[in-house]
Amino acid sequence: MTTGAELGGRAATTPVEPRPAATVMLLRDGRDTLEVLLLERATSTPFVPGAHVFPGGAVDDTDLAGIDGDARHDVVAGRSPEEADALLGVPDARAWFLTAVRECLEEAGVVLGRTRDGAPVPPDHPVFAELAALRIALESGTRSLVDVYRAHGLQVRVDELAYVARWITPEVSPRRYDARFFAAAMPEGQRAHADGWEAVDAGWWSPQGALSDWQAGRIELIEPTVASLRLLAEHRSVRDALDALHAATPVGGDG
Fold first, then answer.
1. CA 196, CA 117: separation in Å to the nearest integer?
2. Averaged in consecutive runs of 10 residues, what is the pLDDT profile of the chain (255 residues)?
3. N or C end: fewer C-beta atoms under 10 angstroms in the chain?
């Protein structure tokens, strides 16, 4: 199993049970190379304050509820429950994909998915008129991602997120996560922007540029982010990266 380095904070006296979590690397084609979105976490946040990270967070009850009932037919599409479970090696695995998509919307203001007829979400879609309020509602738990997507005629396309890796926070950390890392293309016509409370800035970096700034001490990165950036640095375009990541065996696992 792949595990991360210490992610900051004082050591816990008794190991904390890691919470299931999901993180997504949003990718776009830059002028000369692949670029990835990094969010600068607020210094007031209890987990890795001040670090540059990918959008992500813990799987919550609304994500688990979202894969039940009608959601599997009209909102969550692209992989069957059995296919998703086999890919991630856990039951109810499509909830992790929902978390990744929800966190993109909450933390970066990015709507991943498609319209009900399979088309890309257009920049003038009504969902964007409500984006600020939807981000707050999702963060507070007063609405679920499935509720938002159903109301706006959108689908989460599980097959468009490549499963890349699994990282578990070390036992010495007072906050622990069992995180699945995904990658997806940044939708055309959308603009990422930080939520202003968990993240204070959102920027696009070449993997090589982010690693250089980290090595020079200009930004802070945690080990899973460093490993992910090194993996992305092997590719020059979004298409090449996603094709390779979809075909590769994910890093980490159950043993």
1. 33
2. 38 78 97 95 88 96 76 78 94 95 97 95 95 95 93 95 95 90 97 92 97 98 96 96 95 51
3. C
Residue type, 109: G
Domain 19-247: what homologous superfamily? Answer: Nucleoside Triphosphate Pyrophosphohydrolase (3.90.79.10)
Helix axes of 223-232 and 207-215: crossing angle, nearest 10 degrees? 140
Domain residue spans of the chain? 19-247
Crossing angle of helices 81-88 and 94-103, in 10° steps, is 80
**Of 57, 192, 181, which is closest to residue 111 (Cα–Cα)?**
192
Instruction: Count Cβ atoms within 10 A of the Cβ of residue 58 and give its class: 0-12 exposed, 13-18 middle, 19 or more buried.
Output: middle
Task: Give CA–CA dist 28/133, Å, rounded.
Answer: 26
CA 245, 248, 251, 253: dihedral to nearest 10 degrees? Answer: 120
Separation between Cα atoms, residue 182 and residue 250, nearest integer Å? 10
The DSSP-derived string for 54-103 is: -SEEE--HHHHHTTSTTHHHHTEESS-HHHHHHHHTSTTTHHHHHHHHHH
Q: Report CA 87 to chain centroid distance, whole Å.
A: 17
Round to the nearest angstrom and report the end-to-end CA distance of the chain: 5
